């Protein structure tokens, strides 16, 4: 079969100004040109009209642009450089368009595109319809323009009225010296509980829950009328707290020693993510303080305390020291008790340190994990995690009457502790340092005792000078102040009950499992909570085995959300957020319930069955207008495709216990509880037993341990 003669087809008239653009710069159109085989009739090249009409409509004109009319074609003649009307080219009963080389040869050396220009001949009735449409559009445009001008005039008048109103308010303030009134409070507690850090990694919570519970119970036992508020440690909250002029601001947060920036910072929170507050940040905020007493229950906070002492007398631990959680609880509970007994700050401080010493007993001297590493220690011993040599040594030096702490070892001409000597040498990075240390240790020993804090030793080995590092918990607490510490903080305290100024029954969960999932839910709650078009959140519980744990998780996240949305300085906006759990078959009760306008609601709906769920969709949508709904669904219902009013949240951070996963990843669960609680759980249950437990069994064991721990704290408070 003979190969047909083909040309490149360039259609003009499709896009606005395409004809002008083509003849100015034809190269840019080359990629859009189609290869088109020509027809042959009576040994003449050309195109059948019906074929061309079909081809152009199919390939170049969108369906919605086709109107009732007729396509008119004109063809570009390269010789005359003009478009030729189709009627001058038709033959064979007007069916065939006869073309020759004038339409595709610009020169003899190459074939140029066949250029076809389209026109549309619209039928008269169609023309009238579009003419009428254009007239209506013009009328609507004029009306809209009039409304815009009217709205601008109203806005200008409103702006002028608002400016005049503000001027009158300012005049009244100046005349009457009006200032916003904030009730004065005694104590403000700010705790930090971010779920994840800025890299989306989980954050182990500081032990704020025990601190706060202990504070409330200890002060209640004193029968003192103390006003207080509890809120999250954010920059905004701290600024608002200062307006209430509290006697004491108590901040519970992680503190870190940022060696890269030679700076310290407190780990505040911001929308459930951590927020670093450096000493300059806190200094800037505390400038607004009216000489409040500041408690920093944070590690490494000493340098921060030094920088803000001109604005607030501050109690903190040194910049390179960590604080044992239990030590903080014992210290601050005793400090409050003594201050409320009208003792001076200095006396209360000394009594609180004694209480720490008595309560901790042997644990008062911490040789491990109690301070950050110095650069000399990293260079000589390569130390980053293990903060002393004691735990690697099996010596019996502690049995000697000469030894009074866990860092000291026997070292004189008659006896040198060989155990600790080998541990130190094994830790040294370079051989030349080992030889040097072998000679140097004899010189470092004093009165037959060698103190083996790795950082102190490293500095002495480098330049014979070192700074003493405090390892005794009770001695870590320091007062940083430019004022006298002999004054009383509470001069006149009435007997009575604790008064919570923000009227919030604080009960935030210390432990929130699956923290990255919690952040997703928190953000979605934030997005939909105040929206008129709320989405129903659907969380997958896997199988029935996991439902009760996911329900508990939904409560935890809802409470976490609640205590961040109920701002103590915006209580006029919303009074409370109530969390209601109910099975799906009881949903009718919720629809009949009366709801208060200044209270918001979160509904946790559980025990879903497929048939009942499908029947209840309309009721769920009605209930969603009264509050935010969290559905706890099984996998089958979770996979069910619904409209955009339902939003699926899959728990990616933790796969619930199911037939595919009988054993639990116990390390992953325990890590959610922080280092100290993890240690207590492992000691109580036993690591071997924990490894054999299933998911739900382990969580049951943890609940028992946490309950027992709370009872022990209550017993301590009562005593």
From TrEMBL:
Any coiled-coil regions, as ranges: 120-154
Protein name: CHAT domain-containing protein
Organism of provenance: Paramecium primaurelia
UniProt keyword terms in alphabetical order: Coiled coil
Top-rank taxon, per record: Eukaryota
